[in-house]
Design brief:
The protein is mainly alpha-helical and 271 residues long. The chain has four helices and no strands. It has a single domain, classed as A middle domain of Talin 1, CATH 1.20.1420. Helix 1 packs antiparallel against helix 2, helix 2 packs antiparallel against helix 3 and helix 3 packs antiparallel against helix 4. Keywords: Membrane, Transmembrane, Transmembrane helix.
Length: 271
Amino acid sequence: MLKYSLSLLALLFGAIGTLACLAAIIYAWSASSRLTHATESVFGVADNVVGKVQGRVAQIDERVQQLKITSAEMEESVKTWAKSEAQELVGSRLKVQEKAETLLEGIDRADQWLAVTESSAEMIHQGLDASQKLGLPLDVAPAQELLSEIETIQTQLQDGLGVARNISERVAAAGEEKPDVQLGEQIAKLALRVTATLGLIDARIDAADELLEKLKAGLEQEKRKIIGWIHLAAFGLTFFFFWLGAGQGALCYLGWCGVRPNKKAAQSPTT
């Protein structure tokens, strides 16, 4: 009777243990799926923000390329204005004035876009910094360098804006008279300075774009690494609970073997 009772308990607890291990394996993979989805969502948001910053940087770069053409055209217009005859002075001056105003408007628009880009880059940096403090091995250096590049571009844009405004004011002050040699040279130098500044901005934009690509690649690498660890943990738990469940299954089998003979023995006297 004692052996039968122990066998029955072994059968009962073995069955419960086997089912519990099976449930644990299912839960482990369910949790793994949820964690993987959450990781992809978090990194997807970060990747989306980086993509928007890249798009904004591309817009600024396109604007700078257009402004470089406008600046070169203004240089030629300044030379033409200085050599114009009396009947051509008004048209030449207006052309220089128009190019200067176009530069002012274009640089100001690029500066506004850059301010939005800086806000997004700051948000990326804060997110990476917070993730690093939580223990994630994310590299914040590219985000810091990106902010530094954006600050440099802002400074250069402000410099270009000031020079373009100076040109516009000097041209307006000249009125309808032919500019003297000194004024013509000053305006020509200012126009060259705008062109040089735009060239520096162009180089900084290329550097910022490279940092964004590096940042995007780093995020993708970390995402894959984290998802890999999640899957590895799920496989580890599966192996552990499978091994534990095998033991519970063996206990269940022994209990079953202990119960069956007792049933036969109990039925033999009646037969």
